[in-house]
């Protein structure tokens, strides 16, 4: 059975674990389950369903919003040890926006049902306070995106995105299409392609078949 | 003394009031104070100081962010019965952005010191849960701004802003400069002026000395 593993992971990864009652601990262990998502699959598709909270063990998760026209913008990424609360937005009062969550790489995670988390929040101050910290942290991410979009020109945003992507992939060759970049940045494919041609002319990057090679990272940083 | 008044206002406006201990109630009453801000004054200037929470009794409050270049963008407005938590962001872990708060009209409010709110949050589950609701609600506001900026063209945003301003002022004549509108929308004065000339040509608005008259609200809504 996986309960023993869960207990070990919770103990290590949930800061409130030691502060809650053994009854609450058991509730969490008995209702949560390990889940695996192949790369590119949806973990949570907007507000309708209530997928629960995901505690990420391995892999990379992307949270984003989608417009009626199908345009996307990335809000934040979650890595190992992070917890995704917006896939359980049904339990939060006053949340009036839809966040989509998908696995960028293969993701191993623990799913905590929304109802279960809600239940222990109702009796455990430590969990309610932890939720405050989670919300503040994600809000800071979103504010960062907002500031970047409003106040940063597109060349800076694209340069920053390429550098960050290089770090996440731990490689100077990024396997990503112009369309995908446009979705991350809430822009259009044509705008991305035009800026990448400019970057290539300046010798910062080289476009290759289905990928982008970072040639001059210092040049990109200088932008 | 104003303590009796405070108790009455807290009882009416703080949803958690009845759920907390009389000790916590007394702490809140003894440390909070009524405050008045003239129109246009700063209630909280970014992250450095920790001004405390403001419970708005009368008037209109604006929360916004500011860039290094001095550009502004409005995040949300608070009216009577709303509570401003970002003026106490020092007590929140993981908040890494600066929100500025100012009085748009004369504002009467109750100031709850950050330390005092923090103290009762440490022992009162109802307060921690209320903070979650506040954070979720403000996060929804910010997401709305983000979506509007990313996905809505500037003509729509300006039309929406003028209509909203008309409702807030309860008048079809808005006393506001192009510069101020630009600050609300994170844009430049020139861009606002150009779009207002277009709106005037279409007969939606009329520019007057130091003000803007809304002539065709249905036309603006149609945008």
Automatic annotation (TrEMBL), chains A, B:
A GO CC term assigned to this protein in UniProt: cytosol
GO molecular function annotations of the record: DNA binding; DNA-binding transcription factor activity
Family annotation (PROSITE patterns): CNMP_BINDING_3 (PS50042), HTH_CRP_2 (PS51063)
Domain HTH crp-type: 152-218
Domain Cyclic nucleotide-binding: 16-120
Keywords: DNA-binding, Transcription, Transcription regulation
PANTHER family recorded: CRP FAMILY TRANSCRIPTIONAL REGULATORY PROTEIN, HTH-TYPE TRANSCRIPTIONAL REGULATOR ARCR
Name under which the protein is recorded: CRP/FNR family transcriptional regulator, anaerobic regulatory protein
Organism for this UniProt entry: Lactonifactor longoviformis DSM 17459
